[in-house]
Amino acid sequence: MKKVLSINSGSSSLKISLFAMPTEQRLAKIMVDYSDETNQLVAITLPNHELIVQHYHNKLSPVELALKLLTKHKVINNPQEIAAIGHRIVAGGELFQRSIEITTEIMQKLESINELAPLHNPANIAGILDAQQLLPNCPQIAVFDTAFHTDLPPENFLYALPLEYYRKYRIRKYGAHGTSHRFVAQQAAKMLHLPLNELKLITLHLGSGASVTAIKNGKSYDTSMGFSPLTGLMMSTRCGDIDPSALVYLLKHHVFSDMNECMEILNKQSGLLGVSELSKDMREIERASTENPQAALAIKMFVKRVCDYIGSYWLELGGADALVFTGGIGENDCHLRELISERLSCLGINFQSQQNQSRDLPFDFASTDSQARLLVIPTDEELMIARDAYSLLSSKQLCNQTAVNY
C-alpha cells in the first residue's frame, strides 16, 4: 500500500485528500479556506467520516497545516509515510499533454505559462513549492486540467485568426476542467456497462467555474472553455463568451482604466454576480428569483447557455449516449437540472422529475424512452490526481527495478 496525497490549490482555498493506493481508500479529506491568512477555516473528514471544523489563528502555509492535521489526528504517524504528491494544474498549454513528475526544469516551464490561467496556475505552483519545501524527497506529480483536451481536432481548437498567431504564440482553445470531465466519463462508462471508447458523452461540469465537453470514443472532442478558463459558459463571476468588440468599445470609453481592470471585471465581477447584482452563489440567486427579476434573468441566461452548448455538441457527436451532470450545481441542484432537461425535449431527451430529486448519488434520471441517459455523477478530481500520481510512481519504481535487474 502506498499513501498518495492529492493537492488542489486555489487562489483562496485548498482541497487535499490522502489515499491508500491502489485500493483508492480515502484516508482523509481536508478543506482549507485561507482567504483570511490570519484566521484559516479548516475542515477535515477522518476515516470514520467524523467531520472536524475549526479556525487556525496562525500563519502556517496551507500544505504545512494539512500535514500537521494528518499527523495530529493519527491518519499518518509521520509525513515521510507519503509516497507521492499529486498536484492539480489548471493550464498546461501545449507544453504538457500528460501528467508528469515535477523537476526543476518542469517548474521553470510551468512558471512560463502562468498567463494561460492567471487566477489559477500561480496558486497551483505555490502549492507545489510549499510541498517541495516540506517534503523535499517525495516525488511531486503535476496533473493538468488541459491534458484531457489535447486530442481536440484542429477545426475545434483553432480560432479563425491569422494562422501565424497560432504558429508563433500558440493562440488556441486549451479547455479546462479536464481532470473532472475525464473522471466522470470513466464513471459513466461503468454505470452504462459499456466501454468508454465506444461511447458518445456530453459532460457538464457546473459549479463556480463551468464547462461542457463533448467526448467521443473516450477522448475530448470539443469543449466550451477556450484559450483561458474565462470563455464558454456564464459562470459565478466569469462572463463566458462575449464579442471582443464590446470590450474594445468599453476600453475606448474608459470604462476600464487598463487591461488589468478589464480582466478583473470579466473574471471576478461578471457572470451570475454581474447580472443578478446580488450574489455569485446560485443557491442565493434561486432563493431570490421569485421576487427579484434580475436573479430570475441570471438563471435563464445560465440555462440557455448550457443548452446552447449541449445542442451544438449533440450535432457534432451525432447524438449522445448520455449527458453527465457534475460539479457543485450539477450534482446538487435538481431545479437547475430540470430547467436544462426541459429544454432538451426536442432532442428526444425525457426525464423523471421524481428521480431527479434523488440524493443517492450517482443516479440516472432519464425516462425509459429517452434518447440519452441523464446521469448525475459526483466528480472526484483528487482521486483522479491520486490515480495519475500512483501510476507514475509505479512506473518509475518498475523502471528502477528493471534497471537494477538488468
Q: How would you sum up this structure in a few lines?
A:
Mg(2+) binds at residues 8, 381. The chain is an alpha/beta fold and 406 residues long. It has helices at 62-72, 104-112, 121-134, 154-157, 163-169, 178-192, 244-252, 259-268, 271-276, 282-288, 293-317, 327-332, 334-342, 353-356, 381-405; strands at residues 2-9, 13-21, 25-33, 40-45, 51-56, 82-89, 100-101, 140-144, 200-206, 210-216, 219-223, 322-326, 363-364, 373-376.
Q: How would you portray this structure in words?
A:
- By secondary structure, this protein is an alpha/beta fold.
- The chain has 2 domains: 2-144, ATPase, nucleotide binding domain (Nucleotidyltransferase, domain 5, 2-Layer Sandwich); 194-381, ATPase, nucleotide binding domain (Nucleotidyltransferase, domain 5), CATH 3.30.420.
- Helix content is 40%, strand content 20%.
- The strands form 2 sheets. Strands 5-4-3-2-1-6-8-7 form an 8-stranded mixed sheet, with helices on both faces. The protein has a 6-stranded mixed sheet with strand order 11-10-9-12-14-13, with helices on both faces.
- Strand 9 (200-206) and strand 10 (210-216) form a beta hairpin.
- Helix 10 (282-288) crosses helix 11 (293-317).
- It starts with a strand and ends with a helix.
